Amino acid sequence: MTFDRGAVPLSRPAPSLSRRGPLYRRVQEELRRAIAKGEFPVGSQLPSERELTTRFGVSTITAKRALDDLAAAGVIERGRGRRATVRQPRATAEFEGNLQGLFETILVQAWNNQLIILDFGEVAAPPDVAQAMGVEAGSPLHCTTNITSRYGKEIVHTVTWVPVEIGRKIDRAQLLEVPRLLLMMRLGIRMERAEQSLAACPAPAEVAQRLAIASGSPMLRLSRTTYDEKDRGVEHIVGHFPWDRFEYRMTMRQP
């Protein structure tokens, strides 16, 4: 079946959305499937937010969040005043793992690192961070910027955003002694799921300056957003690793 570049045939019965997860995520998954099947080829336009509300029987806010998340994942491109278009896909490996295993790995790594805090305080959420955390752009978030070293070598520049009510309960001195993840657990924050991606990128100027490398040098960019049991963002992290100082290893076993 082919689609024109501007609309989806709304007369076709809407696909039944799975009952698991928030509505915006279910809409997002259906759009991903349609793109993967070739119903929306590279360069073609997706339905508008209004058409998606009719197609799936959801609110405009839900449709917008689904498209925003696809844009953040690099699946589509969005621009003010124009429809979202499908981007050329990148080779991506996806897998689902145990959240406890991820957290245990993070804690073990954190205990073996040395932390230098560069910035610490409340800021207005940038649009991409606000989107990941599920808040309005410009909303206040608590932000920490730090450099992590291991064996005397700087290995990552990290920026972490958390809700203000969480950030105000954690001070600089605590972060220098205890991993943030463990501090959040001690506050009774239940982390239900996390989404993490790792991709190559050129070094941003500010990151390059703070890590004493050339601007535009190859880096690995890790982005992770953690959500609570109500699917609210409780932590968003962006880390930049110089390519020659970092190695990502995975060990997989049969369940």
What would you note in describing this structure?
The model is unreliable at 1-13 (pLDDT under 50). With 255 residues, the protein is α+β, with helices and mostly antiparallel strands. 31% of the residues lie in helices and 29% in strands. It has a 6-stranded antiparallel beta sheet with strand order 3-4-5-8-7-6, sandwiched between helices. The chain has 2 domains: 1-92, Arc Repressor Mutant, subunit A (Orthogonal Bundle), CATH 1.10.10.10; 99-245, Chorismate lyase, CATH 3.40.1410.10. Helix 1 (23-36) crosses helix 3 (60-72) and helix 2 crosses helix 3.
| CATH architecture verdict of the largest domain | 3-Layer(aba) Sandwich
Placed side by side, the strands forming the largest sheet appear as 3-4-5-8-7-6
CATH classification class of the largest domain: Alpha Beta
Order of helices and strands: HHHEEHEHEEHHHEHEE
Derived structural class: alpha+beta
Report how far the terminal alpha carbons are from each other.
39 Å
Rounded radius of gyration (Å): 20 Å
Q: Please give the count of helices.
A: 9
Number of strands: 8
The domain tally reads: 2
Beta-strand fraction estimate: 25-35%
Shape: globular
